[in-house]
Amino acid sequence: MILRDNELERKKPKSLRRNLIEWAITLSISAAILYFLAPPSWWQFGPWKPENRKPTPDFALRKTNGEVWSFGNQLGKVVVINYWATWCGPCRFETPGLVNAANELTPRGAVFVGVSVDEDPELIAPFVEKYKITYEILRPGRDPNTGADMSLPTTFLYDKNGRLAKKYTGIVLESTLRSDVEELLAE
Fold it and tell me: Which of 151, 118, 150, 61 is nearest to 126 (CA)?
């Protein structure tokens, strides 16, 4: 049987060098795809080591009962601030996980608060009751920068020193949030 040049080329085993090059290209393409498809919270702030965190200036928001909640009073605790609205479908999906995490982690030193950006405050109480929310619900107040131009839901995670550790844009899974809060509690 006579083999043509093309057939001879196909029959030769690939060299180790060629295999390594193909493997490296495949790995690079896979890493690029994962990087661009990963939720922004995975890469937006880079590594969330303590030395990379920036301090957050003190700010205050109003509770639904009119009292003031101050971020500066939360030092020494891990703080989770979730921006949401009653009309937001992803917020409704995310809320049960936040409630579960808050119920378990609050006694261990975490503070969970929700900031409702609803224009009609009458919508908040039925939502809180329906989802059995046990953490404080705050209102953004008159500061136009608080919650402005923000995708919903958005959750901010702060370490015990009041430094932003992570920002989750979109739904944060309960397991992810729980793991991240526990890591900060252990610091």
Answer: 118
